[in-house]
Amino acid sequence: MVFLIGSMVTGCTPREKKETGKTSDITATPKNFERVKPPVLLTDPQAQAGYMITHYWDYFNFRDTMYCHVPDITVQAFVDFIVLFPYVSSDIIDKGVKKLLDSAEVDEVMYNYFCILAESHLYDPNSPYRNDEYYIPFLEHNVASLKLNEASKVRPQHVLQLVYRNRPGAKAENVVYTTASGTTGQLYNLSARNILLMFYNPDCKECKQTTAEIKQSAAITAAISSGRLKVLAVYPDENLDIWRSHLNEMPSSWINGYDKSLTIRNNQVYDLKAIPTLYLLDENKRVLLKDTYVELIHEFLEQN
Predict the structure, then answer these.
(1) Shortest CA distance to 216 belongs to which of 171, 251, 166?
(2) Partner residues linked to 269 by β-bridges
(3) 90 close to 50: Cβ distance less than 8 angstroms
């Protein structure tokens, strides 16, 4: 039996109908998702969320692959599942994900389907729910599964290695950069209470928009002016003509450099699923916010 994980699969294959003149039960529209309810005596919100995550899929029929073709039911149920994650500990999340995927393993089609949902919602850079920490237990289940052959584990193993890097709380990987004057510097040699590390391409629309948002943030501007925050913008690709042609668009208070050795890109030192990618670091270069948004950086600086 071969499972195909993530983007290797784009959907489910319905089982064939029996040629009996009647519609097979498996082709009937599945019933709506039945949600569990926490015990009445469980009044603490965090405990309620923990109960919901642990028992969320108790009434779901994982053998009915027609659910793969009813996204109004399954996608909404999955989203409602993962939006509970911020309210519980990582142990509860791990337990809930394991229970989900253990149950889905009864059918390879269903297992594939939930792996696709996890990737599209938690790892796709365009998803509003993207979160590497929440995606990790799904990947760990793929890698540990006894029902997957080694070929099927190659991609999840690779992605897992990427998301393990530069996690919140861990020290960020060092970055060696070269400025327009030819001067070489290192992330680890920068001194500031906070460092905003931005990987960007000066020719991309989203990067220009993000740069404008950073400039417009009062909290970020004030932090730069006071010396609390330094911004290191790094171009990780090789077309230096494009990079140089846009130098005047970057604020002079920022450090703007490129990766001369292309180490970031070639060795995937940082998981650049999309450009731009933002990290907020503390003075010891520990990751505070990973693959984050300008508004979250703004909020952090205001509150801290």
Answers:
(1) 251
(2) none
(3) no
Instruction: Please report the pLDDT score of residue 28 as a whole number.
Output: 63
* The token pair that represents 285 in the structure block: 């270069």
Residues 6+ apart with CB under 8 A from 231: 195, 196, 198, 214, 220, 224, 251, 253, 254, 255
**Local structure of 59: helix, strand or coil:** coil
Question: Strands (DSSP E) along the chain, which ranges?
Answer: 176-178, 184-186, 194-199, 229-235, 255-258, 277-282, 287-289
CATH architecture of 176-303: 3-Layer(aba) Sandwich (3.40)
Say if CB 176 and CB 261 are below 8 A apart.
yes
Q: How many residues does the chain have?
A: 304
For the chain, list residues with pLDDT below 50. 1-26
Instruction: Give me 209's structure tokens.
Output: 């928009």
Q: Strand ranges (DSSP E) for 189-244?
A: 194-199, 229-235
Residue 268 vs residues 20, 165, 238: alpha-carbon distances, Å: 55, 10, 15
What secondary structure letter does DSSP report for 93? H
Which long-range CB contacts under 8 A does 35-41 form with residues at least 24 apart?
Answer: 35/59, 35/80
C-beta separation of 257 from 179 below 8 A: yes
Using CA atoms, how far apart are residues 21 and 35, in angstroms rounded to an integer?
35
